[in-house]
Amino acid sequence: MRLFNGKSAKGSLLVLLMGIHFCFAEGFAPSREYFVYVGTYTGAAAKGIYAFRFQPSTGKTTPIELAAETVNPSFLAVHPNNRLLYAVNEVSNYEGPNGSVSAYSIDTSTGRLTFLNRASSGGNDPCHVAVDRSGKWLTAANYGSGSVSVLPIGPDGKLGEISSMVRHSGSGKDPRRQKSPHAHSVNLSPDNRFLLVPDLGIDKIMIYRLDAATGKLEANDPPFAGLDPGSGPRHLAFHPNGRFVYQINELNSTITTFVYDPVLGTLRDSATLSTLPSGFKGASTTAEIEVHPNGKFLYGSNRGHDSIAVFAVKGNGGRLEPIEFVPTKGKTPRQFAIDPTGNYLFAANQHSDEVVLFRIDPTRGTLTATGAVLKIPAPVCVVFVPMP
Asked: Alpha-carbon torsion 369, 374, 375, 378, what sign?
């Protein structure tokens, strides 16, 4: 394929590490070129993972080509070494009784993807993946079966058999969407000690301790943080200072702010607000959430209202204030991603087959469409990989 031209010593250390992370975020990543990979739902048009080049200094993108042909690579994760890419295969039975995760190596000079292997995700309809910060473990959320799996990553980047798996139990208020658990995303804490898993079906963020030596998951104490009945938690984001977690709730279109204890791995609910403008009466559900690298702004996507909700982050992350609700110029923004420089937002409009680029005002957080529209069938997830 051709790709186009009061504190314990441990607590003090955690605070120091998070401060270093925040300082890096404030300065942004260097302005360099990136490979951008887009996961899709495959079918009549989409064939797998698409890729292109992106130049943040100019906002220029190159034409799109297919990087890897595979089934329903709806969500992607990049290895910390930037040489490996992982994709879920979001189906109930793919080459076995469960869904799977596929591993690829990245040619750092051309951006080409080479298939390495595929492993069972241990459950149905895997919808989200994340690589731990050591690069040794891949975590996967299985939506259909309400389970979470950990798979080892070998020195060659290939995936091994599941090292740990947990299944959630229970149900929620919504008789149609919450009959059973639905693990919706996997999120590593900044220090790599905890795995936070929002479960849409049971209105809880399940919290696990991750043993980075063995890949085993153990329930934290307490084992979860609860949300309002019928919320339907989907994805979450840590503030760069590591002291706050923002949970976007799919079913009632809200964002809940939690105070996070990095030593104990616990969450304390502090506030919940709507992602929709006052007076909106139509049907809408949320999808993605992301904090700007400078920690001053937060963004969430609305499907139905088809917009990005923009919030100012006040008091080092403790409070959100609505700024604007920006149409994504397409249908169903399934996911969006802020580029590593913090200057652009890529909105993946699943049902209008396009990714729309917006410029971010770094002082106000507001979004302005650049006019660049990337035609990609059924786009779902966007990730960035720096070019050497």
From this structure: negative
Which tens digit of pLDDT belongs to each residue from 196-246?
Answer: 999 999 999 999 999 999 999 999 999 999 999 999 999 999 999 999 999
At 171, the amino acid letter reads S
Confidence of residue 316 (pLDDT cuts 50, 70, 90): confident
Average per-residue pLDDT for the chain: 92
Helix, strand, or coil (residue 350): helix
DSSP letter for each residue of 64-115: PEEEEE-S----EEE-TTSSEEEEEE-SS-SSSSS-EEEEEEE-TTT--EEE
Task: Please state, as a whole number, how many other Cβ atoms lie within 10 Å of the Cβ of residue 46.
Answer: 22
The pLDDT of residue 108 is above 50: yes
284/186 Cα distance (integer angstroms): 23
Rounded to whole angstroms, the Cα distance separating 209 from 221 reads 9
Asked if residues 357 and 38 have their Cβ atoms less than 8 Å apart, the reply is no
> Model confidence over 24-62: pLDDT tens digits?
334 455 558 999 999 999 998 999 999 999 999 999 999
Of residues 317, 225, 227, 220, the one with CA closest to residue 263: 220
Cβ-proximal residues to 122 (8 Å cutoff; 6+ apart), any chain: 98, 140, 142, 147, 149, 162, 165
Report the phi/psi class of residue 22: left, alpha or beta, with left for phi > 0 and alpha for psi in -120 to 50.
Answer: alpha
Which domains does the chain show, CATH number per domain? Answer: 9-386 (2.130.10.10)
